[in-house]
Amino acid sequence: MTTLSGQTAIISGGLGDIGSAIALELAKQGADIAIGDLLDDNKSEQLIAEIESHGRQCIYHRVDVSDAEAVESWVADVETRLNVPSLIIPNAAIITIADVRNITPAQWNRELRINLDGAFYLAHASVKRLLHLNRPGRVVFVGSWAAHAPHATIPAYSTAKAGLRMLCKCMALELAPFHILVNEIAPGYVDAGLTGKIFDNNPGSRESSRKRVPVRELITAEEVAQQVAYLCSPENRHMTGTTLLMDGGLSLLTSGMEHHGK
Ligand SMILES: NC(=O)c1ccc[n+]([C@@H]2O[C@H](COP(=O)([O-])OP(=O)(O)OC[C@H]3O[C@@H](n4cnc5c(N)ncnc54)[C@H](O)[C@@H]3O)[C@@H](O)[C@H]2O)c1
User: 111 CA distance to ligand 1 centroid (A)?
Assistant: First the structure.
C-alpha cells in the first residue's frame, strides 16, 4: 500500500518535462494517472509504458486546456475509465518572450487563455465532480516564481501566473470545508521544459542563470514533482491556499540590490 493508492491524478500538459515527471512520481506513490496534452497519441506511449511498469494505470487524452468544453469531457471520460480524479494538477503552459511594447493582443490572449483560463477549467470541472460525490481531494496549480517578481520580458506569463496565485487562494477558502486542499507550487529556474528550451537556444544562459540563483543551483523536473507529491500526500493535512515557492532565493533579488556572493 503506497501513499496515494486508490487515487486518480489528472495532469494537464502531462507530456511536457515537468508534467511527465509529476505523472511518474504520483504513479510511483500509487496513483493512477490521466494525462492530457496537445501532442499526438504516439508521444504518450513511452510515459504510459513507464507508469504501467509501476503497476499503475495511465490514460492519455489529446485536449486543449483553453477549450472549456473539451476539458469538461476529458474529466468525465477519466471518471468513466479510471475514477473521479482526486489529485488535480493544472500544469499546461506556454511562454511568450515579448515585452509590453512588442506583445500583440493575440499573443496576450492566447497566453492568458492557456496559462490561466486553462488551469481554471481543469480545476473547476474536476472539483465540481468531487463536490458532487462528496469526496476529498487536492488541487496543485503549477505556478512560477515569475508571479513573485516583475518580469519585463514575459509580462503575459507573469500576469497569468500571478492570477493563478489568487485563484488558488479563492478556491482554497471556498473548498476547505469540503476537505479539498488547494495549493500552488512556484518553481524558479528548472533545467527542463520551457526554461530548458530557452537555455538550449541561448548559449551560456544555463550557466549565467545558475550563477544568478542565490543557492547557485538549477532545479530538476523530478524535484518539482516530489514537492507536488508532498502537497498531494496525506502528510499535508493543513496547508491550503499556500504557494510552495522553490526558487533558490531568486525572488529575493530586487533590481539594484542583487545578491553579490561568490
Ligand atoms: N521550466 C521551468 O523553468 C518552469 C519554471 C516555473 C514554472 N514552470 C511551469 O511548469 C509547467 C510545465 O512546464 P514545462 O517547463 O514542463 O514546459 P513543457 O513545455 O515541457 O510542458 C508544457 C506542456 O504543456 C503542453 N501544452 C501547451 N499548451 C497546451 C494546451 N493549450 N493544452 C494542453 N496542453 C498544452 C505542451 O504541449 C507541453 O507538453 C508550466 O506551468 C510552467 O509554467 C516551469
Answer: 12
Distance 259 CA to ligand 1 centre (A): 29
Residues in the chain: 262
Confirm or reject: Cβ of 93 under 6 Å from ligand 1: yes
Burial (CB count within 10 angstroms: exposed 0-12, middle 13-18, buried 19+), residue 49: exposed
Choices 3.30.360.10, 3.40.640.10, 3.40.50.720, 3.30.70.270: CATH for 8-246: 3.40.50.720
Asked if the model's pLDDT at residue 1 lies above 90, the reply is: no
Please write the tens of the pLDDT for every residue from 38-55: 999 999 999 999 999 999
Nearest CA to ligand 1 atom 4: 190
pTM (two decimals)? 0.97
Atom of ligand 1 nearest to the CA of 190: 3
248 lines ligand 1 (CB under 6 A): no
113 in Cβ contact with 66 (< 8 Å): yes
Q: In this predicted structure, what is the pLDDT of residue 254? A: 74
The verdict on the CB of residue 114 being under 6 Å from ligand 1 is: yes
Q: How far is 107 from 214, CA to CA, in rounded Å?
A: 32
Ligand 1 close to Cβ of residue 229 (< 6 A): no
